[in-house]
Amino acid sequence: QVQLVESGGGLVQAGGSRRLACVAAGDIFSMHAMGWYRRAPRKEQQLVADISGSGSTYYADSVKGRFTISRDSDKRTLYLQMNSLKPEDTAMYYCAGSRQDVLTTRDIDFWGQGTQVTVSS
Prior knowledge:
- This protein is mostly beta strands.
- It is built from no helices and eleven strands.
- The strands form two sheets. Strands 2, 4, 5, 6, 9, 10 and 11 form a seven-stranded mixed β-sheet that branches.
- A hairpin with a 5-residue loop joins strand 5 (46-51) and strand 6 (57-59).
- It is globular and about 40 Å long.
């Protein structure tokens, strides 16, 4: 089993930056692809960014050029650097991990508890 714990959320003004972190513990060698999801009130869950086991990255169109996903070489910590934040980025952000090399929502094996990001206008 793998436990994922997010941190870094909080209140930030529009245009500001925030870095989220997700620390993995347990059988981390079984986890390959990781990613960040978010859920805003009255909206569906959205995949924000992910990184495959081989290091390839994906970004949702709404965050391209503003967010950067990265992971420590030991795969224990996943980051999401968020710049030029907008009020519409306000959401609960969840870290996710998969035993597969490529992240797909149906194959997610591990979830964190979430960290709230609120962007004020």
